Amino acid sequence: MNIINNWDWNTGRRMIADIGEWKTRYQWVEEPYVSPDGEKIAAVIKPPDDEVFTICENGAPWESTFDKVWYPRFSPDGKLTALVSEAGEWTLAIDGQTPEEKFEFAWDTRFGADGRNIIYIAQRERKYFAVINNAPWETGFPSLTGLAVSTDGDRAAAAVQTVPFKEAEIFKFQEGCYSVAVDGTAWGRNFVNVWDVVFSPDGKRTAAGIRTSLYDYTVAVDGVPWEKSFASVWEPQFCPSDNSVTAPVRSAGSWFLAKDGKILWDRKFVQLWQHIYSPDGKKIAAIVAPTFGRWTVAVDGNPWQITFGEMVTDAVFSPDGKRVACLGKENEKWTVIVDGSRWDTYDMAWQPVFSPNGKNVAAKVEKNGRYTIVVNGRPLKDEFAATWDPVFSPDSDKILIKAIETGNNENKYFRRVIPLGAVTK
Amino acid sequence: MHDIYNFVSGTLVWVSFILFTGGCVYRFVSMAALAKKKDPVIYEYMSLRYALRSIFHWIIPFGSENMKMHPVFTIVTFAFHICLIFVPLFLFAHIILIKESWNISWWFLSDSIADVMTLIVVGSCIYFLVRRITQPEVKFLTSISDYLILAVVAAPFITGFWTYHQFPGHKFVGIIHILSGEIMLVAIPFTRLSHMIFFAFTRGYMGSEFGAIRHAKDW
Amino acid sequence: MAEPAVNNTKQITDEGIVRGASKLTPEKIERVINSVLKAETGARLKTYVDICVHCGLCSEACHFYLSHDNDPRFSPAGKVKQTIWEILNRKGKVDAEFIKRAAEIASTECNLCRRCAMYCPFGIDIAYLLITMRRICHKLGVTPQYIQDTAHSHSATINQMWVKDDEWIDSLMWQEDEARGEIPNLRIPLEKEGAEIYYSVIGPEPKFRAQLIYQAAVIMNASGVDWTMPATPGWDNSDMCMFTGDFEMMARLKKIHFESAARLKVKKIVMGECGHAFRSVYDVGNRALGWKMPPIPVVHSIEFFYELIRDGKIKIAKKYEKPVTFNDPCNMVRGRGLHEMGRFVTNATCEKLIEMHPNREHNYCCSAGGGVINCGPPYKKTRVDGNRIKAEQLFAAKARGAKTIIAPCHNCHGGLEDIVHHYGLDMDIKFLGDIIYETMEKPE
Fold first, then answer.
1. Cα–Cα distance between C266 and C195 in angstroms, integer?
2. For C318-439, which CATH class?
3. A247 in helix, strand or coil?
4. Among the four residues A145, B162, C62, C122, which has the most C-beta atoms within 10 Å?
5. Contact B84, B121 (CB under 8 A)
6. Which among C15, C289, C295 has CB closest to A329?
7. CB distance B31–C46 less than 8 Å?
8. Does residue A324 sit in helix, strand or coil?
9. Helix locations, B39-143, DSSP H
10. What pLDDT band is residue B116 in, cutting at 50, 70 and 90?
11. Residue A54: its H or E element
């Protein structure tokens, strides 16, 4: 929240960059990315008459050029990063600067909540490790996947291979050759498989879904499996308010929510996954299929009346924990659902965003190739060629819209802050 | 003998009809309930249109590729099934019995046609028997129960033919005829003959999967 | 009277089966079989077993049966008799030797091609019965070694070829580089959120057939579609766990696949020329997760190419000259009815199409699908000998002039390559993508 307080929340509209002008200047301009505060826009570009690439940010190219540039991403505090390669070596460039430390490959850039810590995965000499602020783990592993980062970005963990095995050594594999490495140190206990590593909110503990044989799935917390095993398991979550861990588990052909190895909700589902906690840890919502082929959200085990045939996804709690919003899809059309009530339909919709006071919901949507922002079910009058997730002001009275406009302003990127009243009245 | 006749043509008829009807209902209802419990997905994919499309192609002679590949079998099996159903339902002698009992009646076959149709059933059973013994791919699948079922199906027709033509011992054979008919009726819901109940559903389910989901023919 | 159910004339040497079976006890076998039958089967299995009249009419549907001089042990119902029927008759009281042979029959002598479902008058889904046998074998830990290794790869890397996350991204960048030699402005857009199309492939493409990614990139760029590929696990749409009977892992793979597409906010998934992956994504894996139909529409390349050519997005510069024949893949034709679209694309790109017979829904399986080719070298002979009929079918097409086989499916390719080689057919095998790439107008 601190970061957002410092943004420009004065009502008004400012042009930040003219992407159309970039396109006249460069051979090549890829899809742009926008900083969280909307003050910066950047894209991978190919300068004229050259076989190299770099990044253009607000009209100014980085000084360095590279053989390859991809994955431009802004940190929460507005630093611009991109994965770059020069002479076959990869690293992460930050605001155009590249560190000394280079790797055979680098990918999956992540950020701590305040942007101070920047993390990615890298490979060198067939060893895999996480890199935090350019410092690689001391230990590398023969394989690593599913990077997890603590909330503040101080710590990183991932599923890693701890025991080498050769091709087709199936019985060795089944003895357990995988574990979780936290800051480069493995849990000390191996499993047949490890998936979905997560950190506790305070960053002190880790949990993951595991398989201890080809048939026994459960959750391991800091390397210790639950006593009971299940037919399958999905991603676990730590409760923000106590030390418990919950995960969807499969038993006797149905899915349940389990807490510390015991069934929590007294209701079974055809499917149950992507469960989330309210910020205070008191409520749990999950995406569920109460019957085959019908999807909805269940809050504390109680499914909403409204169901969708194709998909329900992107569930989110309001900051006060009182409301839940998500996306639903039926007949190839998407909609936003807030507390079981649906909005209009769109060709695509993005995860809804709550205002800090929980009273308002906004989402980016697309219809017929044009984008707009819908607030509390009402779309803005303007349609955009591109837009990004909206952000509510700390006092919940205004909304920040970042968009590339159309018509006379084609290819021009504007940042605007509008009073909520202007949209919702 | 008269007592036995009265028993098989009286009480046992009722018993067999009850077992047949009740058995069919039971098999159908219990299977539907089992499907609901264990294979609920079947209900989601059943499509009336595509079920009927598939059934239609498989109840028309030479409606499927496989039938075209086996013309003799196709002709025999269609003739067999048609005669198997028509003869008992539309035989003059059966209708007379029903009229005597309940004073209802319906259209019937001439005795000579029924005679020919009976021979078709018996001949078909012989064909199936020979096929079971001589065709390796059928023989491999065959167990004693397959011969028993064939016998159960053939018996009422052989004995009926015998009785109608008053061959030696026809009075005794007549009792066997009634008894064997009853056995066959009762066997329908509880043996492989239950394909009479389930054919439409297995065929319809495959037709629905092929037609509605996979957009392909299944014949 | 009845033939013996199990014929043990052949020595089983596959490590996955032999070593897996060595750990079995009669009690374990009985317990596992009955728990699978009780917990996971119901009306379908019961009805299919109850009503089968043992007529043998499914026999000629099977390429194994036809290729083994009508040996009844290879007929579809014959295989069921040697596996599921016997298990049901003996209420699970079978020994490890039986399980070994049953595992081989179910995993290597049946491609689950579903041709027999079209020949059974009752519409009995024989492939379902044999996959149930595979499921039991999985639960018993008796699965051929190579496909089990693939299933392990799926579980650990979420792709079937042990491709690591960086190797995947690197392969795409490498193909992008290569293709830029031909089309300088070509791009393989990674992680482009909001693109129209998510292009997904199978594990062997980055590993062995990277030129297919190259060609797909050329076709995508030339047709001007808005597309992307993920830089995360989920990119591999393939699924050998579906074929080993590890349905829990199958579900996990499909979940990750669809989630990666949902995360990228695409409208549809276009997939490369693979058959089994389509089956997994379209009507098996999705169901295991509770989705009646795929949550994001899945378009197979055959249909995608059909649309591109129909809509004029791809123009053909010069048609492919050699006469071709078209091998209908089971999972695209019996599985999705794309046979006419395949012929539309073939006719649009090739001078002459010579049909093989039978064709369309009735085409013979390549004998590689259903996970059989993934059982590896120990079973190569099984599947090649088991498909002499395919060689005869191809020889007949060749006699009428066909020189090239178009097979829009990875498994068909692998299977047909071995058949062409073994039987001395001397024919080329191409994907539709190969033909389009070769014949299309390319951007400067």
1. 5
2. alpha beta
3. strand
4. C62
5. yes
6. C295
7. yes
8. strand
9. 41-45, 48-59, 65-69, 71-90, 92-102, 111-134, 136-139
10. very high
11. strand A54-57
Measured between beta carbons, the chain C residues lying within 8 angstroms of B35 are 42-44
Distance of CA A24 to the CA centre of its chain: 33
Task: Write down the ipTM of this complex.
Answer: 0.98
Q: How many pairs of residues across B and C have Cβ atoms under 8 Å apart?
A: 144
Indicate if the pLDDT at residue C3 is higher than 50: no
pLDDT tens-digit map of C196-242: 999 999 999 999 999 999 999 999 999 999 999 999 999 999 999 99
> What single-letter DSSP state applies at residue B170?
H
Cα dihedral A181, A182, A187, A192, rounded to 10, equals -40
Chain B nearest CA to A110, separation (Å): 41
Residue spans per domain, chain B? 2-213
Q: What is the DSSP string of A89-151?
A: EEEEEETTB--S--BSEEEEEEE-TTSS-EEEEEEETTEEEEEETTEE-S--BS-EEEEEE-T
Does the domain made of C154-309 have the CATH classification 3.40.50? Answer: yes
pLDDT computed for residue C5 by the predictor = 45
Domain ranges of chain C: 15-143, 154-309, 318-439
Where would I find the beta strands (DSSP E) of C274-398? 298-300, 324-326
Q: For residue A425, what pLDDT is reported?
A: 60
Task: Quickly state the pLDDT bin for A423 (edges 50, 70, 90).
Answer: confident
Q: Do C335 and B69 touch (CB under 8 A)?
A: no
Q: Quote the pTM value.
A: 0.97
Do A312 and A287 contact (CB within 8 A), yes or no? yes
pLDDT tens-digit readout, A103-146: 999 999 999 999 999 999 999 999 999 999 999 999 999 999 99
Structure tokens at A82: 């991109």
Amino acid symbol at C300 = H
Q: CB distance from B217 to chain C under 8 Å?
A: yes
pLDDT value at A422 more than 90 = no
Q: Within 13 Å and on the Cβ side, how many CA atoms surround A331?
A: 2
Enumerate the β-bridge partners of residue A17: A413
The CA distance from C103 to C143, in Å, is 7
Residues in chain B: 219
Among C421, C413, C173, residue whose Cα is nearest residue C301: C413
Q: Which residues pair with A34 in a beta bridge?
A: A41
Chain B residues in contact with C46 by the CB 8 A cut-off are 31, 34
**Which of C213, C207, C206, C360 has the alpha carbon at shortest distance from C301?**
C213
CA dist., res. C275 & res. C215, Å (int)? 18
| A254 CA to centre of own chain | 28
pLDDT for residue C1: 40
Q: How confident is the model at residue B115 (pLDDT cuts 50, 70, 90)?
A: very high
Indicate the SS3 state at residue A367: strand
Instruction: Please list, in sequence order, all residues whose beta carbon lies within 8 angstroms of the beta carbon of residue B124, skipping any fewer than 6 positions away.
Output: B76, B77, B79, B80, B83
d(CA C38, CA C26): 18
Query: Distance of CA B182 to CAs B3, B15, B177, Å?
Result: 17, 9, 9
Task: For residue C54, give the nearest of B146, B207, B217 by CB distance.
Answer: B146
Predicted confidence (pLDDT) per residue in C328-386, tens digit: 999 999 999 999 999 999 999 999 999 999 999 999 999 999 999 999 999 999 999 99
CATH says B2-213 is which class?
Answer: mainly alpha
What is the rounded CA–CA span in Å between residue B6 and residue B11? Answer: 8
Which chain C residue is nearest to residue A194, measuring alpha carbons?
C156
